[in-house]
Amino acid sequence: MSKNLTTRSEDYSKWYNELVVKADLAENSGVRGCMVIKPYGFAIWEKMQAELDRMFKETGHQNAYFPLFIPKSYFSKEASHVDGFAKECAVVTHYRLKTGEDGKTIEVDPDAKLEEELIVRPTSETIIWDTYRGWIQSYRDLPLLINQWANVVRWEMRTRLFLRTAEFLWQEGHTAHATEQEAVAEAEQMMNVYADFAENFMAIPVIKGIKSANERFAGAIETYCIEALMQDGKALQAGTSHFLGQNFAKAFDVKFATSEGKQEYVWATSWGVSTRLMGALVMTHSDDNGLVLPPNLAPIQVVIVPIYKTDEQFAAISEEAKQLMARLRKLGISVKYDDRTTHKPGWKFNEYELKGVPLRVAIGPKDLESGTFEVARRDTLTKQTVISAEIVTYIQDMLEEMQKTLFDKASQFRDAHITEVNNFEEFKDVLENKTGFISAHWDGTPETEEKIKELTKATIRCIPLDRKDETGTCVFTGAPSAGRVLFARAY
Can you give the pTM of this predicted structure? Predict the structure, then answer.
């Protein structure tokens, strides 16, 4: 199997696009800007989904489902929300097709115009808050902790598989609370859940922070986020959690009776991650040989490849492989035995290297005689001969070590690419020649942030939650600054 991948140093963007397709994760579809997620890519997303779903339920959330279509009038109820999404909305105007006069073509029936246009959901705040009005009457109904797994549509002009597509998969949490403090605590909690998932399952170190006003979610009072750094030095927003205040409750008249009998508006949050996490996973760990997957999210953690010449050897190796599979599966390790006779071992080695399978076990006649297995690590491309009695423990330990090694490697790269600068010349130099996060003072105004973005294409990724109290002067205007923020170019 020939990989023929463009190298990262040659063209990082091309490398990414080729890898996503060649590793069988996804491909472009016949619908402009939309993708087909292939079985191997969807298997990774399913593992992400399963872990996140478990974490949501452990924090008291329940799953529900809301309509794909949203009446246009709902959007007009929250002004900043509609302004934030107006340019990305797909709109349904008619409900019927008809055969053209030539008897062959299909056209929209002009007599089937909807009385009110429907928006294909770009996010579900409006339809959900209209629904919550009927669900919430009393303080006894709160908190309401709902999550939805769904697809959304945002009409992107420039698309890239997983990172930015017109339609994508995600989850969106929408919660209602009796007090401001409870809602803020919920938004912070979900940011922490996302950070836990990113670091312990995806092996991606993240920086927790809040967004500037320019980068805040449309309709939010505060947006909490986790920011990751890719190997090309660009940032990627890996998850957001929004404190919505009472904006949507007031827009949709969602009130509750307090224990004292007073009528008050509820306090809200929303939060979500999407299939762009797949892009983050690919770009954080993978190399010029293909995918590198952290064991905690790999659909296949161990693959066993037989090496043989005769049918008798194949039968004996298969028996040994099946015994090893049974032992590993009892420990919850996902393992595949590739007994295809249509491909040679070398071809299979290349395939699983490209697909990022963490551990590869090769068994040949000599291994059967000596009671050993050859184990190859995907992350370091090193091999080790392991005796049969120790193989299961070795694989268990190695999967744990690989998970930690990938996180540590990504952390070292991220930390080495956070650079403090004190003037705009340094800012531009780091951006062009080193890349990564730039820690710089900012005067706190949207105008300065917009001007820096216009000149450099760098945005404020976040105001770190753990930033030090440090007064200074803005890197661009020289005006007083209350502290440093993180700038970067981003996906």
Answer: 0.96
